[in-house]
Amino acid sequence: MSDDERTTNPHRTVITAADLPPQTPKHQDACLVVIYGDDLGRRVPLTRRPVVIGRSSKADVQIDQESVSRNHCRLVFHKDTYVLQDMGSTNGSYVNDALVDTIVLRDGDQLKVGRTILKFIVGGNVEAQYHEEIYRLMTVDGLTQVHNKRFFDEALEREVSRCTRYGRTFALIAFDIDHFKAVNDTHGHLAGDAVLRQLGVLVRDHVRRDDIVCRTGGEEFSILAPELDQAHGLIFAEKLRSLVEATHFEFESTRLPITVSLGVAEWSTTMRTGDDLVRSADVKLYEAKRAGRNCVQG
């Protein structure tokens, strides 16, 4: 490939057949699994026949979304590897959040078409890997890769039980993205998804080992922080607020200024259930919104 070809679009990963790696072991089964979007958990077996993904009813994998082109991308079997090829789609094909034209897929890669995310699984025991992925989807949000609402509810119940039994405490930090609707309206839902995904990674990488980060709504997140009282919860929340404000969120080279509002509440013996704690944190979150956003209340 010439230098001109490699620099035509610095934001796309482009390879040719000559760039493909040596042959890998033959006869490995492979499939795609929908981990975010409609048909969550759907399994798409892959063979040596090309598989087209798109909005068209004739596509092998139909994704009926406006952001998906009729023939968006395809997977082809080449030299015992699976290669993803964008088919000139309007909004592009993404692998592990990188915009690509043509790329060799590796086990565990995540393909994003429109707002749908599919995970590529290949190996000697695809059946077992598939069931492991389905089990994981029961507790993890496919977009942000933090825990989901179901896991949050179960973890909250366990933490309440533990603190009640042993006389301990914990804090709940509830937060959401300021003016998130404006991000979607101005830049599109694909940009909004990118922000959510980047925020999930950012927060997950900056909490303590025992803290539990969950996506509990559209742009809403919660952190269960064991052994953290109100005062230290406020300090922790302020660090997160400052971190988010200082972070450069991007979508297709466009910087998106993002801030969050946070509410902090501590478990109290006067509370009867975890729902009481959630309501308390939500009240403080709404106070942060009324106070002008991009702040912490507790």
Count of DSSP helices?
A: 7
Biggest beta-sheet profile: 6 strands, antiparallel
Percent range for β-strand residues: 25-35%
Which quaternary structure do these chains form?
single chain
Q: Largest beta sheet: what is the strand line-up?
A: 2-1-11-10-7-8
Radius of gyration: 22 Å
Topology summary:
Elements (H helix, E strand, L loop, with lengths): L2 H4 L22 E8 L6 E4 L4 E4 L6 E2 L10 E6 L2 E6 L6 E3 L2 E3 L1 E3 L5 E4 L2 E8 L2 H12 L11 H18 L3 E8 L2 H8 L1 H16 L7 E4 L4 E7 L3 H17 L2 E3 L2 E3 L3 E7 L7 H17 L5 E2 L1
Parallel strand pairs: 3-4, 17-18
Antiparallel strand pairs: 1-2, 1-11, 3-5, 5-6, 6-9, 7-8, 7-10, 10-11, 12-14, 12-17, 13-14, 15-16
Helix pairs in contact: 4-5
Description:
- By secondary structure, this protein is α+β, with helices and mostly antiparallel strands.
- Helices cover 31% and strands 29% of the residues.
- Helix 4 (180-187) crosses helix 5 (189-204).
- It starts with a helix and ends with a strand.
Summarize the structure in short.
31% of the residues lie in helices and 29% in strands. The chain has 298 residues and is an alpha+beta fold.
Give a quick set of tags describing it.
disordered N terminus, 31% helix, alpha+beta, 298 residues, single chain, six-stranded antiparallel β-sheet
